């Protein structure tokens, strides 16, 4: 069994020992040294170069190193007969939940205002709601969104969730489809986007959506940069429709040094760190998916190409 590891951001010296320990019979190649392309059985990848996967004629499976598969789905040459496997890992889920709770709590407890008071050596106490008096909504109720929603509900926030299809989560009011979007947004004080990026969700964070939120709402985007219409966000912040935004994902990445987001007083930028895949927790799941494919069984977490995730 020959496995190609291809990623510009993930370290092969971390991943390959973990995978080798679980797949001792496998041989590994590290992009760009593929060796004979016809010898590659599986590709473990993150944002592979367009055309790379199409050039591996005997590929049996493509496994993503990250939560999103939109970079692969954007490749017109992607082999349509090869199973795509998305990354689902407890470490990835835990990291995203930590990030979402951190940012929601920072907004809820007015952390930025208190940092400003400290810089001025000013002793001032602000009025403070309880969590149960604050309505928070998550767009995207997959594995990541569901876990984050449950954690925030556990902190007693008034939680809502929205997804393309109907979902049910204890302690969370759920809405779905275009018909449920207005009710989901009505009165929402903090909006968190964890949607997958698909043709239907690209640009969903736009002026029309911001206008459906109450004045002074906050945005947290840890989904994909393609969800956000940047000019619409800047306009909404500048005229006070939105109070602030925390952004972890951008297009392009890294965010250019001259981009307006870096210097906007109402925007917090984090460099795509909301959730990072760790080899020590994720390698076992990748190895199990490869073993299933070797046995002729379907993967546990296949990508639905029609839905884009």
Q: If you had to describe this structure to a student in words, what would you say it looks like?
A:
This protein is α/β, with parallel strands linked by helices and 309 residues long. It is 32% helix and 17% strand. It is built from ten helices and twelve strands. The chain has helices at residues 12-22, 70-73, 90-108, 111-119, 143-154, 177-185, 207-211, 230-238, 260-263, 279-294; strands at residues 2-7, 27-30, 42-46, 61-64, 84-85, 135-139, 158-163, 173-176, 190-193, 217-221, 242-247, 267-269. The strands form two sheets. Strands 8-7-6-9-10-11-12 form a seven-stranded parallel beta sheet. It has a five-stranded parallel beta sheet with strand order 2-1-3-4-5, covered by helices on one side. The longest helix is centred in the first third of the chain and has 19 residues, at 90-108. The two termini are 27 Å apart. The mean pLDDT is 97.
Measured on Cα atoms, how large is the radius of gyration? 21 Å
Number of helices: 10
Distance between the termini: 27 Å
The amount of helix comes to 25-40%
Summing up helix and strand content along with how strands pair, one would put the structural category as alpha/beta
Largest sheet: 7 strands, parallel
The stretches of 5 or more residues where confidence is low (pLDDT under 50) are none
Fraction in beta strands: 15-25%
Number of strands: 12
Question: In which order are the strands of the major sheet placed?
Answer: 8-7-6-9-10-11-12
Oligomeric state: single chain
Q: What form results from the Cα inertia axes?
A: elongated
SSE topology string: EHEEEHEHHEHEEHEHEHEHEH
Can you give the mean pLDDT? 97
């Amino acid at each position: 069994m020959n496995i190609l590891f291809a990623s510009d951001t993930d370290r092969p010296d971390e991943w390959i020992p973990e995978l080798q320990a679980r797949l001792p019979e496998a041989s590994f190649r590290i992009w760009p040294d593929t060796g004979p392309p016809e010898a590659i059985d599986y590709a473990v990848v993150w944002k592979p170069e367009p055309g790379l996967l199409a050039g591996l004629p005997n590929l049996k499976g493509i496994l993503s190193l990250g939560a999103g598969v939109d970079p692969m789905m954007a490749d017109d040459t992607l082999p349509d007969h090869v199973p795509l496997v998305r990354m689902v890992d407890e470490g990835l889920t835990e990291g995203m939940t930590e990030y979402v709770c951190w940012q929601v709590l920072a907004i809820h407890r007015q952390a930025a205002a208190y940092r400003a008071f400290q810089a001025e050596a000013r002793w001032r106490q602000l009025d403070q709601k309880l969590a149960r008096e604050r309505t928070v909504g998550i767009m995207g109720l997959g594995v990541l969104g569901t876990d984050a929603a449950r954690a925030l509900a556990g902190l007693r926030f008034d939680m809502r969730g929205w997804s393309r299809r109907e979902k049910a989560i204890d302690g969370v009011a759920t809405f779905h489809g275009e018909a449920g979007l207005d009710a989901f947004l009505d009165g929402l004080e903090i909006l968190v986007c964890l949607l997958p990026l698909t043709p239907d969700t690209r640009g969903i964070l736009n002026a029309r959506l911001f206008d459906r939120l109450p004045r002074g709402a906050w945005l947290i985007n840890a989904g994909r940069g393609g969800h956000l219409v940047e000019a619409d966000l800047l306009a909404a912040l500048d005229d006070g429709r939105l109070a602030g935004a925390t952004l972890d994902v951008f297009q392009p990445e890294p965010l250019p040094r001259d981009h307006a987001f870096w210097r906007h007083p109402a925007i917090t930028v984090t460099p795509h760190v909301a959730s990072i895949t760790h080899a020590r927790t994720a390698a076992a799941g990748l190895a199990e998916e490869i073993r299933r494919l070797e046995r002729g069984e379907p993967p546990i977490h296949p990508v639905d190409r029609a839905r884009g995730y």
